[in-house]
What we know:
A: Rossmann fold; 3 domains; 5-stranded parallel beta sheet; 15 helices; 13% strand
Amino acid sequence: MTAPRVEITDIQDGFAKEGYICNAHIATAIFLARNLDKPILVEGPPGVGKTELAKATSEYLNLELIRLQCYEGLDEAKALYEWKYGKQLLYTQVLKEKLGDLMEGAQGLAASMDRLHEFDDTFFSEEFLEPRALLKSLWSEDGSVLLIDEIDKSDDEFEAFLLELLSEYQITVPELGTIKAKSSPIVFLTSNNTREIGDALKRRCIHLYIPFPDADLETRIITARVPEVEEGLRKQLVSFVQNLRDLELKKVPAVSETIDWARTLVLLHAKELDSEMVRNTLNVLLKFQDDIDNIDSDINALTTKARSAAE
Amino acid sequence: MSQVLSNFVRALRAQDVRVSISESVDAGRVAELVGFEDRQVLKDALSQVLAKTDDEKFAFNECFDQFFAFDQFKPPKPASNENDAEAESEQSADGEGQAGEEGEDQDGDGGESEGSGQPSDSGSALGSGGSGSDDRESAAEGSEASPDRDLTALLESGDDVELQGQLAAAGREVGADRIRLFTQRGLFTRRIMEAMGLDGLNETISQEQRSGTSAGEARADNLRELREAFRLEVRDYVERQLELYTANAGRQLREEVLSKINISNVDRRDFKLMQALVRKMAKRLLALNSRRKKKSRRGQLDVRRTIRQNIEYDGLMFDIAWKQTKVDRPKVVAICDVSGSVAQYATFLLMFLYSLTEVLPKVRAFAFSNQLGEVTDLFAEKKIEEAIAEALSVHGGGSTDYGQAFEDFEAIALDDIDHRTTVLILGDARSNFGDPRADILDKIHDRARRVLWLNPEGKTLWNTGDSEMKRLSPHCDRAVVCSSLNDLERIVSDILRTAV
Lengths: 311, 500
């Protein structure tokens, strides 16, 4: 067995090839999840790459990504499976004529019923089952990456419903019995912390908290994601965003916004930051008018600071 | 799972990190997987299976660093004599009876014979006696070391890693993780040193001393210094254990007591803790109530959703949807008596309400003693401690007049009270024999969703003297005693739970 440190570095490098730059802490979580067969609960502020992590994992491991977006009112019919009612109805209609042939020779009601019973399983077979995200990932032959996005938006009942899946990788369907995973998927649950996730769920998961990256990591992320940005500008804009996060804002810019901003600046052929440019593009970074108004007076200072930090 | 890990889990629990059994099993698997060699990997990995909230992660990081701290063994410094004296006196103050022996050794009079020294720890110092006598023989030859636990050779070799390893092993052997009290430090230090072969070391020192040669004396001096430095090291280790396992025990006990005792009896110095406690309780309530509840109104068909829902059944309506109503978050109006006798209760009630802004977005607060004024803005603008202090200085102090207060309230805010409002009145209803204007309270009651009276006094004191509970309580939906933080928590959680 190779040393865990080596494997973790491998994961990091593999992710880097997919354009996802992460630190050892995140890679450790992936390493643990694969070796312990446990789901990962990813928490952190919006826009730090929680969903990206699942995508990168699926690309890195070359597994299918199955995504389930949670929302209020999500129930098992939408998350797990549904019967193809239309198809069932259609088939019964079509097969009506065949019914006479089937019943031929049956003596009395009881015998006819017995005959029918031989067929009713066909209507509740996998043939008529419409698999949704969760079932799809259990059925997947060579494993998959299952992303259950924004679990905090779902209802308590759904959270409880997930427990069986998360601890045993199996699910019980009344009509079919217990379905076990053909090979255990790698499960990611993400949460923005709009509400506290239940203890039972947390207990079953590896808990990964992704904070905002430090300047060094963020620079590397920008390098990977927006390679067109020149080095000087890259340092400046990262330093600008890092300073911005220390201010009191309604919503601090996340990594995804830094990336967007970098792309914007590339589009504008910017070579370095100047306050006019910053002022004009600030709406890419800040999503509240209040925030934009509030820092308007600080833009000059922030820009100078960013420029001197980058040197 | 290894002993080390289960000790670590215990230490975590002592720091308020909730670790379930299944999580500690996970920790065992993680440790097996990543091993103990690479600390950063171990830390990352363990933190992901053991600590599952922000606070817990923070506590985990501290605890991990402390628990797996391996300070390098410090070589003796000449200046350490002072420390010795200090440590020595501290130890005698412990009154454990060990210090005396230590002092004896220190003198180097060499009079210590086997068995005379340690009457109290014979049990835990198992085996040290044996190794000690080995040491004596070997030490006489001057060089050869006995295979295990030769403290002399170990100290002289200066092998820090090995020393730390043995220290930890000895610590486990004597059960240093079971240390509970500050005063046990001396005892455990002594026990660990003995388990590591202190007797042998002492023996060597006195023999060298007696040998009379200058080389021998020099070695004895050197060893004595090493022993002293080592003792400090062990004490450090023991203190670390104490810190790890008991740091929070005292606080937890105090919190438990504070949440039960009558608020007016809380000491001023405990206020910080009380505030933390209120925040903690509020957080718990938040977690329970953060989701907006819905209630199905059975009997009212939601036609639109039913049709949409049944398209897949070929339009056969057999999955029926009922109309739902969202349960409204209650609007809370708190009217607090802030005259001397009840001010502290008001402080904590308001603290509670304002810690819950996420689920109670509309809290209006009014304070009165003889005149009533709104203090809502005060709380929005300032920190809660300052706001309360200011509210008390502006509105407190006068002699209580419920009649006047209700009149003022009627003028300011009666119009804003509607069927969603919960009115909390906190006070002892002692109106200095003035008319309490129960008629206004009745008006409030008519308009509000409900009126709760929180009285800090015990029920037996209601209606005694100038207390007007008899006249006021009929106009309340409920009048309850509210004297401790636990009472407060119960009441607030009750407010939060209520549906439309």
